[in-house]
Write a structure and sequence with these properties.
3 domains, Rossmann fold, 327 residues, 45% helix, elongated, single chain, 12 strands, 12 helices, alpha/beta
Length: 327
């Protein structure tokens, strides 16, 4: 097994003090360019790897960002993580990723682990079941994405969000323009975005003189059984003629159920989280494409700004959406 090369080993090979070698490897101007180049070359030849843990302790900075998402199987978070990862790579930061499966207990445990590792910052897609982020995040700079745990959090943490109310209003308007009179709504358990999207849906109904009735709305916990119950109640009890769902995960469950019942071809559907394969569906569908990659990018830049300037004013960014309609 090859011996781990230490700073002392490089210093011995170079014939200089370890402190001088350390400064050279950090490109300190206190070491001449020629000497720096020579030491860098020798360190590379010896396959020397700096002790990043020791550097982190010394500098009180780990160059690591903790990322918490709520459902990594949701394609939304795949694209979000791509945006986050690409921007972190440009900044020289690393990410540590945790997935909560929409469970607040997991999120609490992961936050404790990340703050214990002294990450430089946190980017969180909250489960919505935690009300003591001030204690959990301690003094760690934090940015929320996609959703915040409650409305009051917007005043205490930076956030990068979709303009959910406007998107849901425009989505509902498309179905109304297509002749929808009894438009149902199946939301998720994500309190913040679900409420915002529900509000936009109801605003569109009200604007068009249609009753914004609670009996036209249902909620699912993403299990097939819960989604089936919500859909069947809307179909049988409320006689809906169109349906909006909260995201692509629920949409896939709904389409399967409607196909089994022979009703898929007769329905107009609306959803958040447009995916490219929607274009090939033989279904009347309007889909909201969120600026997901841009949200990830903006979350990192916002967090790095917060790390650099802790006392800067709190910001909330709401990114626009694009609607895709195939009928």
């Amino acid at each position: 097994m090859a011996k781990h090369v230490t700073l002392a080993d490089v210093a011995k090979r170079v014939g200089m003090a370890p402190s001088t070698v350390s400064r050279a490897l950090r490109d300190s101007p206190r070491v001449t360019p020629a000497t720096r180049a020579r030491i860098h070359q020798i360190a590379e030849d010896m396959n020397f790897q700096p002790n990043t843990l020791a550097q982190s302790i010394r500098n009180q900075q780990t160059d690591t960002i903790g990322i918490i998402v709520s459902n990594i199987l949701n394609p939304y978070f795949t694209e979000l993580l791509r945006g986050i990862g690409d921007e972190l790579a440009l900044s020289g930061k690393r990410m540590v990723l945790f997935n909560t499966d929409e469970q607040a207990a997991k999120e609490t445990r992961f936050l404790n682990a990340l703050t214990g590792q002294m990450v430089d910052g946190l980017i969180i897609a909250s489960t919505g079941g935690i009300d003591n982020y001030d204690k959990l995040t301690q003094t760690t700079p934090t940015v929320f994405v996609d959703r915040v745990p409650n409305a009051d959090s917007i005043h205490h943490y930076d956030a990068v969000l979709t303009d959910n109310p406007a998107a849901a209003r425009d989505l509902t308007q498309r179905l109304i323009d297509a002749g929808g009179k009894r438009i149902g709504f199946i939301g998720s358990q994500v309190a913040f975005s679900a409420i915002e999207r529900l509000n936009g849906y109801q605003q569109a109904l009200t604007d068009n003189g249609l009753p914004a009735k609670r009996n036209l709305t249902r909620q699912t916990d993403y299990t097939p059984a819960a989604t089936a119950k919500a859909l069947n109640e809307l179909l049988q009890q409320e006689k809906i003629d169109s349906l909006i769902v909260a995201d692509s995960v629920i949409l896939s469950q709904v389409m399967k159920l409607l196909k089994q019942q022979g009703k898929l071809a007769t329905f107009k559907l609306g959803t958040f989280d447009y995916l490219s394969w929607f274009d090939y569906l033989d279904v009347d569908l309007v889909a909201v494409q969120q600026s997901t990659y841009a949200i990830g990018h903006a979350a990192v830049t916002t967090l790095l700004n917060r790390i650099a300037t802790p006392t800067a004013p709190i910001t909330t960014q709401r990114l626009p959406v694009t609607l895709h309609q195939n009928f």
